[in-house]
């Protein structure tokens, strides 16, 4: 065999082995996972870290009110979505440089097996639960305060917990639990189990309406979804972020039509008023918005669009 023929034969043998090798790799099992669920951005001098607690599938056509199931289906389809809708549960960590503040804690074990990942993602982002100085609760539904507890111990042992006193008075009331419907009793029980250990330790400090909590972070009353539902406003170096909590649940439906409400609202009319007000102000002023149930990381802007609005997600960035 001539030298050139030998080289051709060797190359062919190597190439054949390569294609055989890559073919074998294609048979590897699928991992079916995501990267750790945290996303970071700078807001002036503050670092904002969005923490995923996971997702839950919700039958939103049955849960949304002031709208028909057919209208929900149509609105979802425009965004290439369908029911049950995989819905994010997000928390927001604010590092002011002097304080570490967590807004909402996820569900822990109160809302099913697909949630409860917030603390793991907090650690993946480079923080420890013991470092949290303060925890602010937008409202006392289980997917927002369940993560206060890790089994039978406080998940954030050094933190002060804060929420509007109207929510505390409502959800921590034994009288309200006793008269609640069978389906609603779990909401009260979850709130009590999650928050009462902090109350007993003297680490729960409720506030009343609009209140500055730490420099650069203030509570703004947005009552309706629950009696004390609160929006948290974060500002640094002229930049602003409004953390809306549950003013919006289903972006594909409620941005085009903010009048759409949800079964979980304590006062649906008041909740709709608060949502419309929040959307209009964010669209007019152009500041950042974060929400608990917009697809992770749930950070972006709101743009006016006819009689409704459009959600504009944050452009992905690895640069602080």
The total domain count is: 1
Number of strands: 17
Structural class assignment: alpha+beta
State the shape: globular
Which sheet architecture does the biggest sheet show? 7 strands, mixed
Helices and strands, in N-to-C order? HEEHEHEEHEHEEEHHHEEEEHEHEEE
The rounded distance between the terminal residues' Cα atoms is: 62 Å
CATH fold descriptor: Metallo-beta-lactamase, Chain A
Q: Using only CA atoms, what is the Rg?
A: 24 Å
CATH homologous superfamily caption: Ribonuclease Z/Hydroxyacylglutathione hydrolase-like
**In what order do the strands lie side by side in the largest sheet?**
10-11-12-13-15-16-17
Helix content: 25-40%
Task: Characterise the protein shown here.
The chain has 320 residues and is α+β, with helices and mostly antiparallel strands. The protein has a single domain, classed as Ribonuclease Z/Hydroxyacylglutathione hydrolase-like (Metallo-beta-lactamase, Chain A), CATH 3.60.15.10. It has helices at 3-25, 60-63, 69-78, 118-124, 142-145, 165-171, 174-179, 185-200, 251-254, 268-285, and strands at residues 38-43, 46-58, 64-65, 85-95, 100-103, 134-136, 149-150, 153-154, 160-162, 211-214, 217-221, 230-236, 239-243, 261-262, 288-290, 299-305, 308-313. The strands form four sheets. A seven-stranded mixed β-sheet has the order 10-11-12-13-15-16-17. Strands 1-2-4-5-6-9 form a six-stranded mixed β-sheet, with helices on one face. The longest helix is centred in the N-terminal third of the chain and has 23 residues, at 3-25. It is globular, with a radius of gyration of 24 Å.
């Amino acid at each position: 065999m001539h030298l050139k023929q030998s080289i051709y034969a060797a190359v062919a043998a190597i190439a054949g082995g390569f294609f055989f090798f890559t073919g074998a790799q294609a048979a590897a099992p699928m991992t079916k996972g995501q990267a750790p669920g945290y996303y970071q951005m700078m807001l002036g001098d503050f670092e904002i870290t969005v923490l995923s607690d996971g997702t839950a599938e919700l039958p939103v056509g049955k849960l949304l009110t002031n709208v028909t199931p057919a209208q929900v289906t149509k609105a979802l389809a425009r965004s290439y979505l369908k029911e049950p809708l995989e819905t994010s549960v997000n928390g927001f960590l604010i590092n002011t440089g002097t304080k570490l503040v967590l807004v909402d804690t996820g569900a822990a074990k109160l809302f099913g097996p697909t949630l409860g990942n917030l603390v793991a993602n907090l650690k993946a982002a480079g923080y420890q639960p013991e470092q949290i100085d303060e925890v602010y609760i937008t409202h006392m539904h289980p997917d927002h305060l369940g993560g206060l507890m890790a089994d039978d111990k406080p998940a954030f042992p050094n933190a002060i917990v804060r929420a509007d006193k109207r929510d505390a008075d409502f959800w921590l009331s034994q009288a309200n639990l006793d008269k609640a419907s069978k389906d609603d009793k779990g909401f009260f029980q979850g709130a009590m189990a999650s928050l009462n250990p902090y109350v007993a330790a003297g680490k729960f400090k409720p506030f009343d309406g609009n209140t500055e909590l730490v420099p650069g972070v203030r509570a703004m009353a947005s009552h309706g979804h629950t009696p004390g539902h609160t929006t948290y406003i974060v500002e640094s170096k002229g930049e602003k972020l409004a953390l809306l909590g549950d003013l919006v649940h289903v972006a594909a439906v409620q941005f085009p039509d903010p009048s759409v409400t949800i079964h979980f609202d304590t006062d649906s009319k008041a909740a709709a008023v608060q949502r419309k007000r929040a959307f209009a102000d964010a669209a007019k002023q152009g500041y950042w918005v974060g929400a608990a149930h917009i697809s992770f990381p749930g950070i972006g802007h709101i743009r006016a669009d006819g009689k409704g609005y459009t959600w504009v997600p944050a452009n992905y960035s690895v640069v602080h």
